[in-house]
Design goal:
Pfam families: DUF4971 (PF16341). The chain has 541 residues and is α/β, with parallel strands linked by helices. The chain has 9 helices and 28 strands.
Length: 541
């Protein structure tokens, strides 16, 4: 009986201990602090705009969205749970706030770490007004840039001038005249060259100065028949039907041999020049006959047969029955024409399609713009306006695959025409056109629309922009404020330099650096009646 009583007492004692333990732990849980909601809210003031963070109690993160920059944070506001404290004080971080800040919140002897995270709103990608495509080439590399001596035989009158043209401007050849016209009768008969008046002597001096300036670099001599209306050829090489092929070939051989004796080798020969204004009547058949005879004479006289260029007509004929190029190709003597040459003037822009047609016939022959014009007289009333037409005439030809060019009356400085002519010519030597799209479209040829072109030479990009209007329409014309140019591929390496001409700049233009937005975009304001040239270096992404 005593043994049972002892067991009952132990059981009751165990039950009491369990009950006491349960009560004790229950009381302890009641005293444990709730660690959620230690921060009721957290706000940040950025440039007078207040943002409230989103609190995630599970991760103890307070997240902010829509803030563009942490540098604009000027104040913080927050509320803690009663009895809680925070370290460090958020106010002490205002001058050095980072995208993530950690704070310790303490209450009743326990601590929690909260992270304030600011997700910076990325800057919107700039929307370019014009897009440059550095990898999308068209046309051809513009390999040849010559000085034309047909206008002025002594045009390279000093070593200084030679250095300017053939070193600084990078010209690699000259265009020279074959004389013999009535006003300069240097070829009076077969086998005779009479330079008693010193025409060729003056020319040779210019050539030699140019050769000296070029040193060991490429130098091409291109000879072309000099025009003198209906008296362009001496009497002994022509009859009532124009030139006599065999006789004219003798005169050309005399010229080439004479120049060889003077140390001048003719590399390229144009046997006709603006046939619509001279009496030569050099049809494709006659052209072939002249070349065949000249080849025989080259062998006999021991001179190098030059490459042949033609037809060097004043304005292209296009797709008509008597088109010189069509008739020439019909003869199946393509070996008698090595280079296609044409005179395409500003007044010819309306017949662009005729030039385009003739170029579709030339195959892989080079295309030389053998006499682009920028007539100072025609631009007298408004040279800036006329410059648009002259420059776009050159661009018509670069668009169609021009390989070489030689301005009639090239000028590199001194007036607006000279400064602009140099700016649109020198950078495109050895460059090739690349696509640029502006808001008026890449195919725009209409005057007074925004005209843009881009060229690439190695890693050098040249961009041209013309925003022109007549003087009468200035009030209604558009200023393109902070016009943005973007690269489709690649990155800008360094600064974007520019030159800009307006009615208010000196003739030398205004120079500066465009606003570089980032590595792929830059901007500049394009005033009314402005011509702008940019140049920069590109590197791979």
């Amino acid at each position: 009986m005593e043994k049972c009583s002892h067991k009952l007492r132990n059981l009751l004692l165990f039950i009491c201990l369990v009950a006491f333990s349960t009560l004790t732990f229950s009381c302890a849980d009641d005293k444990k602090e709730d660690l959620t909601g230690l921060i009721t809210y957290f706000k940040i003031k950025v440039n007078n705009e207040v943002f409230e963070g989103t609190i995630d109690e599970g991760t103890r993160r307070i997240s902010f969205q829509g803030i563009k920059s942490i540098s604009g944070i000027t104040d913080v506001e927050y509320q803690l749970k009663t009895g809680a404290s925070i370290y460090p004080s958020p106010e002490t971080r205002l001058d050095n706030w980072q995208t993530e800040e950690r704070f310790i919140v303490a209450i009743a002897g326990t601590e929690q770490v909260y992270t304030v995270a600011i997700n910076i709103l990325p800057e919107p990608e700039p929307e370019p007004d014009a897009i440059i495509h550095p990898e999308q080439y068209y046309g051809r590399v513009i390999k040849d840039f010559f000085f034309d001596l047909k206008l002025n035989l002594g045009g390279v009158g000093s070593d200084k001038v030679a250095n300017e043209y053939f070193v600084l401007d990078g010209m690699n050849g000259v265009r020279i005249p074959v004389l013999g016209s009535s006003d300069r009768p240097t070829h009076p008969s077969a086998g005779v060259v009479d330079d008693s008046e010193g025409y060729y002597a003056k020319l040779i001096n210019s050539i030699n100065r140019a050769k000296k300036a070029r040193g060991n670099n490429e130098f091409i001599i291109f000879a072309s028949k000099k025009l003198n209306g209906k008296e362009s050829f001496p009497d002994w090489v022509k009859d009532s039907n124009g030139v006599i092929p065999e006789q004219y070939a003798i005169m050309l051989a005399d010229f080439i041999s004479y120049m060889k004796e003077k140390g001048i080798i003719i590399d390229v020969l144009g046997i006709d020049n603006e046939e619509n204004f001279n009496e030569g009547n050099i049809t494709p058949k006659k052209h072939i006959q002249v070349i065949d005879k000249l080849r025989v004479l080259a062998t006999e006289k021991g001179f190098k047969m030059p490459l042949i260029i033609g037809p060097e007509r004043y304005q292209p004929m296009g797709d008509v029955t008597n088109c010189w190029m069509k008739l020439f190709l019909a003869e199946n003597r393509g070996d008698c024409l090595d280079i296609y040459g044409m005179h395409y003037y500003p007044k010819h822009r309306e017949i662009f399609d005729k030039l385009e047609f003739e170029l579709s016939l030339i195959g892989d022959r080079p295309f030389w713009a053998t006499e682009p014009h920028w007539d100072a007289k025609e631009g007298e009333s408004d040279m800036l306006d006329y410059a648009e037409t002259a420059i776009c005439t050159l661009w018509d030809q670069t668009d169609l695959g021009m390989d070489g060019f030689m301005w009639w009356s090239y000028k590199r400085a001194g007036d607006l025409r000279g400064n602009l002519m140099r700016a649109v010519s020198v950078p495109i030597k050895d460059a090739r056109p690349i696509i640029i799209d502006d808001h008026d479209g890449r195919d725009t040829r209409e005057k007074y629309k925004l005209q843009t072109r881009a060229f690439r030479k190695g890693n050098i990009i040249s961009v041209y922009v013309i925003n022109m209007c007549s003087q009468d329409n200035i009030a209604t014309a558009t200023v393109y404020q902070d016009y943005v140019f973007g690269l489709k591929t690649g990155m800008i390496d360094g600064e974007v330099e520019y030159m800009q001409w307006t009615d208010n700049t000196p003739v030398e233009g205004e120079r500066g650096n465009a606003q570089k937005i980032d590595d792929s975009n830059f901007s500049l304001t394009l005033p009314v009646r402005s011509i702008t040239y940019f140049q920069f270096t590109i590197k791979d992404n």
